[in-house]
């Protein structure tokens, strides 16, 4: 009976973690993967890993950063696996993505437009998402991506430049009704 | 502006991340003209999926809960010990291996013999008359067993 109670408590605590960090993790995963189905798979794997290795978590580090590290690594792994498959599959068969409509407030759950997704690398997308959504600095992003802050600055600079260029050249990114 | 162009040239000229990071820190991140050439945080946010779009995590939780569900209860140790255990598994594996091996061997033996349904060269290919250099020639037709290829060999009759 005592063990059951402990398990229930553990599960409730885990549910709190999912409620607190699930939305941010899903947003990060959708931005890396480019679609919701894959993002849900990534988040499921990441949260299960968190649940299984909570005893190894170092409390001196930010929990969010630790979780984002796991999410991004899982996403990169899945992208690597999918890349082999996509080599043989016509991209046209993939689900069509919506384009960005200037002026209207875009749906916050919408994945990145295809043109942006194609131009930015997964690491650039990760850096950009953490910078824009979470307000992370280059140092914070470096802790997630396990690279130097200089490298993150380069990722951010290149990604922001590409997006600006896409916006100016109107590659379907700034469609107006 | 001239300085910005020079920085841009230096950035492009040396593709080393520490060098580029240093240039970004020293100039680009502080220069309003250079910043104007980059997408702002708000513009990027509008493009990206945001956490407020995923407030409802019940779908994710349902999947996690399913995975967290305890595995079926194991049988008591006493009962488990009474079972044949690994010897049974080993015997079953050996039996499976024997079945697979015998099936494979039988298939090999069957396919090694002449195929009864493969028609002979004469049945599938006929030649009425053949001449070599204006003279009647002797013709041989050969078809390897199980192949669709047909060899025609013409030989002068002396």
On the 0-100 scale, what is the average pLDDT of chain A?
Answer: 81
Task: Please state the structural category of chain A.
Answer: mainly alpha
What would you call the shape of chain A? globular
Number of helices of chain A: 7
Can you list the strand order of the major beta sheet of chain B?
1-2-3
| Molecular shape of chain B | flat
Distance between the termini of chain A: 62 Å
Number of strands of chain B: 3
Report the sheet with the most strands of chain B, covering strand number, pairing sense and barrel closure.
3 strands, antiparallel
Structural category of chain B: mainly alpha
Helix count from the secondary structure assignment of chain B: 8
Record field, number of beta strands of chain A? 0
Low-confidence stretches of chain B: none
Name the average pLDDT of chain B.
77
Percent of residues in helices of chain B comes to 40-55%
Question: Whole-Å distance between the termini of chain B?
Answer: 97 Å
Question: How many strands, what sense, and barrel or not for the largest sheet of chain A?
Answer: none
Low-confidence stretches of chain A: 98-103
Strand content of chain B: 5-15%
Could you give the order of the helices and strands of chain B? Answer: HHHHHHHHEEE
**Pattern of helices and strands of chain A:** HHHHHHH
Keywords:
heterodimer, A: 177 residues, mainly alpha, globular, B: 158 residues, 3-stranded antiparallel sheet, 8 helices, 3 strands, 53% helix
Report on this structure.
The complex is a heterodimer of chains A (177) and B (158). The relative contact order of chain A is 0.12. About 3% of the residues of chain A have low confidence. Chain A starts with a helix and ends in an 8-residue tail after the last helix. Chain A is an all-alpha fold. Helices cover 68% and strands 0% of the residues of chain A. With 158 residues, chain B is mainly α. Among the domains of chain B are: 46 residues, no CATH class; 46 residues, no CATH class. A 3-stranded antiparallel sheet of chain B has the order 1-2-3, with no helix packed on it. The radius of gyration of chain B is 40 Å and the shape is flat. The chains are: A mainly alpha (177), B mainly alpha (158). Chains A and B meet through α1, α2, α5 and α7 of A and α2, α4 and α5 of B.
């Amino acid at each position: 009976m005592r063990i059951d109670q402990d398990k229930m408590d553990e599960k409730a605590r885990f549910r709190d973690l999912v409620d607190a960090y699930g939305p941010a993790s899903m947003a990060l995963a959708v931005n890396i993967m480019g679609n919701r189905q894959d993002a849900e798979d990534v988040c499921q794997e990441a949260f299960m890993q968190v649940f299984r290795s909570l005893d190894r978590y170092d409390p001196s580090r930010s929990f969010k950063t630790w979780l984002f590290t796991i999410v991004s690594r899982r996403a990169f792994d899945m992208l690597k696996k999918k890349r082999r498959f996509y080599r043989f599959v016509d991209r046209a068969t993939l689900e069509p993505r919506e384009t960005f409509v200037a002026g209207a407030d875009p749906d916050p759950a919408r994945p990145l437009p295809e043109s942006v997704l194609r131009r930015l690398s997964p690491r650039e997308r990760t850096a950009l998402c953490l910078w824009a959504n979470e307000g992370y600095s280059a140092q914070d992003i470096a802790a997630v991506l396990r690279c130097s802050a200089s490298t993150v600055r380069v990722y951010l600079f290149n990604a922001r430049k590409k997006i600006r260029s896409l916006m100016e050249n109107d590659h379907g990114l700034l469609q107006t009704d | 502006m001239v300085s910005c162009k020079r920085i841009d040239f230096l950035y492009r000229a040396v593709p080393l991340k520490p060098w580029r990071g240093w240039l970004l820190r020293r100039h680009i991140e502080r220069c309003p003209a250079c910043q104007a050439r980059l997408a702002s945080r708000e513009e990027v946010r509008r493009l990206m999926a945001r956490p407020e779009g995923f407030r409802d995590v019940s779908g994710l939780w349902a999947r996690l809960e399913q995975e967290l569900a305890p595995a079926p209860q194991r049988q008591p140790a006493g009962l488990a010990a009474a079972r044949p255990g690994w010897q049974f598994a080993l015997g079953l594996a050996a039996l499976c291996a024997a079945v697979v091996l015998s099936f494979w061997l039988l298939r090999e033996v069957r396919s090694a013999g002449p195929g009864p349904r493969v028609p002979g060269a004469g049945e599938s290919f006929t030649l009425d008359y053949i001449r070599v250099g204006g003279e009647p020639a002797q013709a041989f037709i050969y078809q390897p067993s199980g192949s669709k290829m047909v060899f025609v060999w013409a030989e002068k009759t002396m």
